[in-house]
Design a protein that fits this description.
- This protein has a seven-stranded mixed beta sheet with strand order 3-2-1-4-5-7-6, sandwiched between helices.
- The protein contains twelve helices and seven strands.
- Strand 1, helix 6 (103-106) and strand 2 form a beta-alpha-beta unit.
- Helix 1 runs parallel beside helix 3 and helix 5 crosses helix 12 (269-276).
- The termini are far apart.
- By secondary structure, it is α/β, with parallel strands linked by helices.
- It has helices at 8-21, 35-38, 41-48, 50-63, 67-88, 103-106, 122-136, 182-194, 209-212, 221-239, 252-258, 269-276; strands at 92-96, 115-120, 143-147, 169-173, 201-207, 261-268, 290-297.
- Helices cover 44% and strands 15% of the residues.
- It binds S-adenosylmethionine (SAM).
- The site of S-adenosylmethionine (SAM) has 23 residues, from helix 1.
Length: 301
């Protein structure tokens, strides 16, 4: 990301959550009623008008079939997982690359019980904090904001904000790994594995390596590539958010196990499509280019 420029992808995925949340209750796959408050004027114009929203979603689906389903499906998958973690009991929640994630403000069972840390690139976090203040009048007491550039700084900075390494912690890392270098991904996972209490866990999504390095033979990849190139021309001179990291399909177990995790459970786009996009939402597709995984931190010897 460019210094001083907030993430545009963070705003785009929030706009998709906002649009999904406006669907009737029996049709929507995820519900983030705060998403609308976090987006800026251009996305708000699209989302607030029923007609423009429909056209924009149609265009997104025509350009990259399954992209919106991927983003909405992963939100639901992570929401369901977090709900389970809260029910089982966690002490801390760390949201890595938080963007305009509103889980700290919309989930029951956090306030007064779970300390939340939102970690993000300083440029994006500055905008997020201003929006939180505008929405709620002030910053909530149970949320700490930790500005970190994963490429330049280590997660140790969490300690300055009161993070405690012996507490049971859930880490959420949604829609971020693909924008990082392998070193930054490695440093983050190593920090989580070495600096969290018993039964701590992480949930994240990642791109398949074959897509990032251009060798994927999956149907439709060429089309996605063309759209991505167009996006790069339009957007990356502004924000510089190219895809830089992927994990080989089928390799996540070994990848995470080597880094100190176990109880690794992965699902794919096909799973999300079958689990969430049947019934009334029938017909919506989910990309087959990503993995969605959660894992627990191995007990220390
Ligand atoms: C696609 S957005 C996802 C935001 C949020 N997790 C969500 O799903 O709504 C990518 C996020 O990664 C963050 N990010 C990208 N590169 C980063 C870096 N080098 N250091 C810290 N954060 C970074 C951006 O600021 C942005 O919030």
């Amino acid at each position: 990301m460019k210094q001083g420029i907030p993430s545009i992808t963070a705003e785009a995925v929030t706009a998709l959550r906002a649009a999904e949340s406006l669907r009737p209750e029996n049709e929507r796959v995820c519900y983030d009623p705060l998403a609308r408050e976090f987006i800026g004027t251009r996305f708000r114009l699209l989302v607030n008008s029923g007609f423009l929203r429909m056209v924009a979603l149609w265009v997104v689906e025509r350009l990259v079939p399954g992209l919106a389903g991927d983003i909405i499906g992963r939100v639901r998958y992570i929401d369901d997982y977090l709900r389970e973690c809260i029910a089982a009991g966690i002490d801390q929640l760390v949201i890595l690359g938080a963007g305009y994630d509103s889980r700290a403000y919309r989930f029951d069972g956090l306030d007064g019980k779970v300390k939340v840390f939102e970690v993000d690139h300083p440029a994006t976090q500055k905008v997020k904090m201003a929006k939180v203040k505008k929405i709620f009048g002030s910053l909530p007491g149970n949320v700490a904001y930790v500005p970190i550039d994963f490429e330049r700084e280590k997660l140790d900075r969490l300690f300055e904000s009161g993070y405690e390494k012996n507490l049971k912690t859930c880490f959420i890392w949604e829609g971020v790994t693909m924008y990082l270098t392998p070193q930054a991904v490695d440093d983050t996972l190593t920090f989580v594995a070495n600096n969290s209490g018993k039964d701590s866990c992480i949930i994240f999504d990642y791109l398949f390596k074959s897509f990032v390095d251009g060798t994927s033979e999956m149907e439709g990849v060429q089309r996605i590539e063309a759209v991505r190139k167009a996006y790069e021309l339009l957007d990356e001179p502004l924000t510089d958010e190219p895809f830089t990291f992927g994990i080989e399909e089928g390799n996540i177990g070994e990848f995470l196990s080597q880094k100190g995790f176990w109880q690794i459970e992965e699902v794919t786009g096909e799973y999300l499509e079958n689990a969430y996009f049947r019934g009334v939402g029938h017909g919506r597709r989910v990309l087959r280019l990503c993995g969605f995984v959660h894992a627990a931190v191995k007990a220390k010897q």
